[in-house]
Amino acid sequence: MAFSKKTRTDSIAYLKEHPVDLLIIGGGITGAGVAIQAAAAGINTALVEMQDFAEGTSSRSTKLVHGGIRYLKTFDVEVVADTVKERAIVQQIAPHIPKPDPMILPIYDEPNATFSMFSVKIAMDLYDRLANVTGTKYENYMIDKAEVLKREPQLNDKNLLGAGVYLDYRNNDARLVIENIKQAAADGAHLLSKVKVLSITHDANGQVDGALVQDILTKEEFKITAKIVINTAGPWSDLVRHLDDKAEKISHLRPTKGVHLVVDREKLNVPQPTYFDTGKNDGRMVFVIPREEKTYFGTTDTDYHGDFAHPTVTQEDVDYLLEIVNQRYPHADLTIHDIESSWAGLRPLISANGSSDYNGGTKNHLSDESLTAVVSAVEAYLKDQQKRDLVEKAVEDAHGKESEAAAGDNPSAVSRGSDLTEAEDGLVTLSGGKITDYRLMAEGALKLIKKILQEKYQQTVELIDSTHYPVSGGQLDPANVDEDLEKLAELGGKIGLSSADANYLANLYGSNLKTVLSYDGDLFPGLNRRESISLRYALAEEAVLTPVDFLLRRTNHILFMRDSLDALIEPVVNALTDYFNWTEKEKNFYQDELSAVIAESDLQELKANN
User: Fold this and answer.
1) Is the pLDDT at 428 greater than 90, yes or no?
2) Residue 302 CB partners (closer than 8 Å, separation 6+)
3) Distance CA 463, CA 466 (A)
4) N or C: which end of the chain has fewer CB atoms below 10 A?
5) Whole-angstrom Cα distance, residue 183 to residue 1?
6) In angstroms, what CA-CA distances link 334 with 287, 307, 348, 584?
């Protein structure tokens, strides 16, 4: 299926002349999730994204399909219950992307620690019950101090008590977005990157009827007419609302910035994802995660009021994370000059939603189901009367700390829940949430869209069962992903690719690999066979328009393959110049854009001042 610059041109021509049922504003994971479900249901759908797909926030996460175990420190069972259920569904519909990767959670004897050895076991047992992994190979377990240090000899042993180990999933966030987008395109949606909304438009009755947009590439302005417009712009959601001159100007979001830093694995060697308190008594926890031949760590969580399109890593961010990681791994002795790459992203947190109700509203109490889960998880402990007081104290402390956090200015206490609203003029906004919850959020939005189409336009829609609708590349057996990917990789071997290259492509593209390999042919000058295949496929079927699109979001070269990146820059720029027939001015523009992105990722400016 072609999904390229040409299909973009064709879609623009179509949208100038034809109204659609649904216009989605924002091409991150939330918009992509709405697009795939809408298109599959036969809803005539358009989507516009002012940057590349996933560029704003959805390529800048911690790159986990995270279960949110830290929410169990306050017994926020609703959040974790929804999250771990959704994590299993995402693994089912995109089995080549999330991969199980058990997390180790070291416990230190420190003031105001998030977990004790006792409470972490309660939390993990509850977590496993909610995730339905009790009794499986992924069931949690405890390890003592000696075993922790055997696994992670660089870890600081001072005040270390032991650790818990529980199931989590690594993720390729930008790939998850593009695979949803590609499937929506295959189902007939018109999906446009680098098209910016200038204003929300209205009919004679003052109801939203589309948007005036601008093609960033040509500067041409045109109107897209739609029965329903949904705002899924992530951190920009409030800004999009403000483009609607008939809507109430209320700010619903409290964006916070998260930063991650990447070093070579030889500098910081951890065997598996690790998650611990900062040790700074600030209520935060930090991830340290091995990936490919690198290790990355983060995240910060600070209120953000700058340019939403361009959050950056500051010296303060670097100092904060290096201090924490060097304290936990003192022998690493990391400095800013060890950082090979970095990224900063915004979280679209809802400022006034303190619950797990992912489609709006607030729950201030546990449901019967969740309360039963809590009781079940701690039942064994409560049978021991000597431990009853400890359990009661853990619950009391948890709720006490949560109240204090909610009353203060701690960005980490802001809800990760989502919000679905319909304004009086008909503008629908779906905001907040986490990557893990994107399908569930979209499902809620589609129910509202179906209702509006039925009531206002007498248009009947049958929604799909999105829990079993694979994304592009996801036609694999979720229970046997590794085996399926190995069989796919054999296709690469049959055409002469090395085992490493074949496996790389199979894991990147999943069941699309056969199509990917059909782009084997003449090499782009300066690129090896694997990269030529990957780039040709990305240009023809993944809507790549710039070198940064390919090197940062369709692949992870800039973030996790920094050692080999420099050799790719000129060949990739030259390949796109020839493919798109760029002028010298256009070539220089995109080359400068790539250089600026790499310099920022490398922290070149900060390093020059250190």
Assistant:
1) yes
2) 256, 257, 317, 411
3) 8
4) C
5) 10
6) 16, 29, 31, 41
